[in-house]
Amino acid sequence: MSRGKIELDMAPRASSSISSSALSVNNSSGSTPTIPLHTNQPSQTPQFITDIHSLHKFEDGLRCSLCKELMRDPVLVKTCLHRFCSNCIHKQASGGLKTCPTCNILLSKKDPFRPDPNFAAIIEKVSDF
C-alpha cells in the first residue's frame, strides 16, 4: 500500500438525494471510492432524552428559588428582574430583606416588586401538562 495524498470532498453529488452527501477519498492510485453519508439518520442520543432534559431545565426556570415550587403569583424584583412567588418574597421583605435573595442587589426602598402576569400565564399553561 503506497502512501498518497488523501482529499476529502464533501460536496453534494447529483446522484444523491437532498438529505445526503457523499464522501470521496482520492489516493495516489487514482481510485475514488464514494461513501454516502446520510444526514437524516438519527443521532446517537435519542431525541426524547434531550427533550426531557430541556423540559426539566425549562421547568426549573419556573420554580421559585425560595420555596422550590412552581411560582404562585410571580413577582419581579424591579432592580434586577429576578422572580419569586409573591408570598415568598413578601414574607422575606417583611422580615427586613434589603437585597435580592438571588443576586444580593439592593432592593429599591419604595415598592421593590411588581407583578408578572405574563410569566404567571406561562406557568399556568405549563402546569396544565
From TrEMBL:
Domain of life: Eukaryota
Region (Disordered): 19-43
Pfam family, one: zf-C3HC4
Compositional bias segments (type: Polar residues): 32-43
Family matches, as InterPro entries: RING1/RING2 (IPR043540), Znf_C3HC4_RING-type (IPR018957), Znf_RING (IPR001841), Znf_RING/FYVE/PHD (IPR013083), Znf_RING_CS (IPR017907)
Domain RING-type as annotated: residue spans: 64-104
Composition bias, Low complexity: 19-31
Sorted UniProt keywords: Metal-binding, Transferase, Zinc, Zinc-finger
Coiled coil spans: none
GO-annotated molecular function: chromatin binding; ubiquitin protein ligase activity; zinc ion binding
GO CC annotations, alphabetized: PcG protein complex; ubiquitin ligase complex
Entry's EC annotation: 2.3.2.27
Reaction(s) this enzyme catalyzes, per UniProt: S-ubiquitinyl-[E2 ubiquitin-conjugating enzyme]-L-cysteine + [acceptor protein]-L-lysine = [E2 ubiquitin-conjugating enzyme]-L-cysteine + N(6)-ubiquitinyl-[acceptor protein]-L-lysine
Recorded metabolic or biological pathway in which this protein acts: Protein modification; protein ubiquitination
KW Zinc (keyword) present: yes
Enzyme class: transferase
Keyword Methyltransferase among UniProt keywords: no
Name of the featured protein: RING-type E3 ubiquitin transferase
Protein's organism: Ditylenchus dipsaci
